[in-house]
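Hi all, posting the design record for the shared folder.

TITLE: backbone redesign
STEP: 1 of 1
STRUCTURE INPUT:
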């Protein structure tokens, strides 16, 4: 079984980018219907899709890993 994509975090990242799904589709080369299906949990993102989305959405490696590889981001918060 593959990794579980954090779709909510990915959707938030897309929203924060200010780009439309059409713009993201054009910039990544991922067919819009495929993009919508992936965001609905139908099918998994492949390596090349992850790579282009990471670049187009200006994700850090930590964000990419948290979204696509299920690695939790832990923040070291200091309580003041």
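Okay, here is what came back for every position:
SEQUENCE:
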């Amino acid at each position: 079984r593959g990794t579980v994509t954090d779709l909510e975090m990915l959707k938030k990242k897309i929203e924060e980018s200010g780009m439309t799904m059409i713009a993201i589709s054009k910039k990544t080369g991922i067919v819009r219907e495929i993009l919508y299906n992936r965001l609905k949990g139908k099918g998994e993102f492949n390596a090349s899709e992850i790579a282009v989305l990471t670049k187009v959405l200006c994700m850090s490696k930590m964000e990419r890993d948290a979204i696509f590889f299920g690695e939790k981001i832990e923040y070291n918060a200091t309580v003041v």
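COMMENT: The radius of gyration is 13 Å.
Let me know if anyone wants the other runs.
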